Sequence to fold (456 residues):
Amino acid sequence: MKRKPITRRSFLKGIAVTGLGAASAQLLAACAAPTAAPGTTTEEGAAPSAESVTLRIQAPAGNLALTPQEFAPQFKDETGVDIVIEETIYGEIETKTQTGFIAGTLQDLLYGHHRWIFINFVKGIYLELDDFWASSPPPDPDDFYPSVLEGNKWEGKSFNLPDVVHPGGNIALAYNKTMLEEKGLPIPEIGWTIDDWTELARGAADPDAGIFGMGFDSMSAMHYYSNTSRSFGAPDSTASWIMDEEGRTMSYNTDLHGEIAAWYVSLLDDKVAPRNADKEGVEPSLFVAGLQATHASTVGVLTSAQDQAGDRFEVGAIPLPPGPEGRQGTCFSGNQWMINSNSAAPDAAWEFAKLITSTEAGIFNVLEAKRQTNGRKSVWTNPEVNAVNPLYGFTDKVLTEGIEPYPMPWNTRFTEANNIFQAEIDLIWEGEQTFAEYAAEVERKTQAVLDEDMPS
Fold:
């Protein structure tokens, strides 16, 4: 993969035009100044050399850290800025970002998910980036999907660059092609509906043999459930959303959500879809273990599942089928890079963030890091990317037309609301409550969070 060099001149030009005050001036001087020999000091009042500028990167442990690790040496060679990658367990990032900011120990460039980035921005943890976008934008800024950039803003303000983009958590239907062929069942194809998928899943399920026909990454988290629920109802309606567009009012106790619940609970009761107990002790998942015929997940599922399944069976995938009335359910979610508002080197952080969200980095994400990629159309339509996972090309149309927004409460308290919604709807999925008996309670308890004030 041929990379476009940053060059020290282009780097200095990028940070010089931002005009963000003393930090910019200091870093500009630092990158321009000669390096002091070991054991010597620079002229009184001079900024330290470029080599003394260090960026600390908060990167999720695992393959999500591979991209900053890969591009850090290039950045160092071409700018003189040191990059220190500090891997953090993904599930701990939300809490450690907030506690680190308070303690003054937080890294310069930060990682996040829609679940917590908006509340952290409101709290002042992340730097607003509109000045950067205006004066030193990423290369080919129009290459980013507009719906992705808009979905990552808060009240029209930009504060991040997209690293991982999901048109929906359940947007891709992976299937065990080997199993379906052995059972003499049809292979899923574009143009299918959820009704077709349901019929196939029932035909593939074999409860006596422990084989399930259908599964999801989640049907409980608000953004995953929304992706599926938005496949129901009329194409021009938002009746299948779980809250209104302003994020102020829950809308779960409705006839349409009751229809969805009846559909899914019948699959659970008939052992066509697994309940939580059915998944216990199966690693890494029922689908990869060859115990589930189809599975709804993210776009990257085709390559990740095949990598895990090896040569035991062949994996295929199509986009999530539309619902009974032809509605294509989408729900934007993903991960982003933000700059610590207290960073001493925001300009260098911005330049590195641009590099690791570039087209080159996006292609690396798929081909080398084996993970979901960023928000650039040039990546989703790249021939090499589509050679290993054609779902990118299929879902490019969805992203181009515009994906539906993340279900974010107006007060940014998503984590609180989601924890409640997830726990309460699981009581319905697990058969402990019925929709008719409990939907109003799910709605009431989640609404209580939406009724709270915006955090200060």
